[in-house]
Amino acid sequence: MSEATIESILQEKRSFQPPADFAKAAHVPSFEAYQQLCEEAKADPAAFWAKLAEQELDWFQPWDTVLDWQPPAARWFDGGKINISYNCLDRHLTTWRRNKAALIWEGEPGDSRTLTYAQLHREVCQFANVLKQLGVQKGDRVGIYMPMIPEAAIAMLACARIGAPHSVVFGGFSAEALRDRLVDADAKLVVTADGGWRKDAIVPLKDQVDKALANDAVPSVQNVLVVRRTEQKVTMEPGRDHWWHDLQQGASADCPAEPMDSEDMLFVLYTSGSTGKPKGVVHTTAGYNLYTHMTTKWIFDLQDTDVYWCTADVGWITGHSYIVYGPLSNGATTVMYEGAPRPSNPGCFWDVIEKYGVTVFYTAPTAIRAFIKQGEHLPNARNLTSLRLLGTVGEPINPEAWMWYHRVIGGGRCPIVDTWWQTETGGIMITALPGAIATKPGSATLPFPGILADIVNLEGNPVEGSQGGYLVVRHPWPGMMRTVYGDPERFRRTYWEHIAPKDGQYLYFAGDGAHRDDDGYFWVMGRVDDVINVAGHRLGTMEIESALVSHPAVAEAAVVGKPDELKGSDIVAFVTLEGTQTPSEALTKELKQHVVQEIGAIARPGEIRFTDALPKTRSGKIMRRLLRSLASGEEVSGDTSTLEDRGVLDKLREGA
Ligand code: WT7
Fold this sequence. Notes:
By secondary structure, the protein is α/β, with parallel strands linked by helices. Helices cover 33% and strands 22% of the residues. The two termini are 21 Å apart. The structure holds 5'-O-[(S)-butoxy(hydroxy)phosphoryl]adenosine (WT7). 5'-O-[(S)-butoxy(hydroxy)phosphoryl]adenosine (WT7) binds at residues 271, 317-318, 393-396, 418-423, 444, 510-512, 524, 526-527, 533, 538.
């Protein structure tokens, strides 16, 4: 973003107070109430979280220590015994919620299903017994590669119930990406479906699993469970593959939740970083349960009459925290939708809102920008008056998109919570509380109570005024990631030593740049590392580069992001070819397809630029800053004196 753009953003004068009637009934009903929570948390963080943990969650055994902080290792509620599946299900069964809708599912094409808390509990217990029958034990990792169907949530909750950490892999990832993740997690079993609906096509999920497991590439996997969904033909390997419905039918519905230690691993979820392979972000039981519970309750202000819908996929952290665990722990009704807006049905989101009377709606800026493009007639053709609160997540939201969302979808009456957080943070960190904090289009506003967010320079000193810097967090919080699976050093290096610790003070480095305005509001500008955010999906440039150079025609590749009106950023790859290869349309197509094959469609480069050489420093480092300017068609500015061969830059310019 240019300096001028940032200046104008920080000058935003539009501000929206929480509507009085909304605030009156809200969990956090005023700015004073918010401030009081913040002060309480600041004065004694351990006491603040302990009080909530006692009030809001059910424990099998109380904890001894609230927080044990030996940077960067945090342990929350040590000595306590708890189970998140119990908190999401069992405890609601002894209340009127027993027969309340837990999960409302809208399938594709056109089928639907509602599971009450009692029904969901039963399915989860049965499936937990299926897992046990197949030899899955406490501590074993289970891979989940599923479409957006109730069985995805059932599988997650069943794993949590028996203490087998799950590793959900987004159904849009390729067989290769799935294999890498299963290998890294050392998964013992995989849950999948014959296929999944994506837009108007079928994704052959089971075939992809077969490919991932071929040639004994993942020796740890002993069994594969397959849900029948699209009814397409699949091959079932005897002894290894089983139909979900065959085993589920006969399984007992009696399966008490395993008392887990607070710090037992709940799940590992892979996400992209600026270096190396995707890393397994580890979350543990009690802290994650508490943090997703509290953030869901206060940010989405869930009341018993709400119908809450988050449009994410369960393959991402948003789906984990805000489709499954947070809402169910609160005893809410959560909607799950298998479809996605597509040319044949661009208004499908509005149909779902009208059909189920959705009251709280949480989606991504990239989706909102696509809706703006389609025009207002689609949402206007549906009754959206049930909505009372809107949310966004995944990337900065441009003020025009915010205003459109507010006016057209929210009818001018719904507060908007712009929620900043990450896979690593487990839950939302910076956001408005809708009954308490006035919003400004484009700002995530203020930190959640108990979160000490700040903006600092590389030395770790707070920046002056509205000058930008690195977004950091100063104190551990219950939902924070605990480690990188199998690589504690990478955890330390990436998040806690990027900004050098001083006087024993460790700062959590988020990888985002941010500014603060005169009211202390946060404006998150985007990644400051080699991570690209494409349509709210996070991709490492290095991952895409490795995918490209694994193609025999490619000698070297450098990948950068360029601004894109719809997707936020798009991927541009600069590629040099092996000796005898020559650039062509066909090769461009082939390379794009190759990346899809290696990673998945979300990583398909928007543009491939062939070049004879890449701009490098004398020490051989690719100068991405120059490539970023070139890709976005900006004048290459700043210091180019370290460039080894200036001719390369001129050629690249001509090529463009
Ligand atoms: C990155 C995390 C957990 C949410 C889904 C993405 C960007 C996320 C916002 C926001 C500005 C945002 C950041 C962050 N981001 N929400 N409201 N405003 N930027 O999770 O894949 O772990 O990506 O998404 O750059 O670091 P993720």
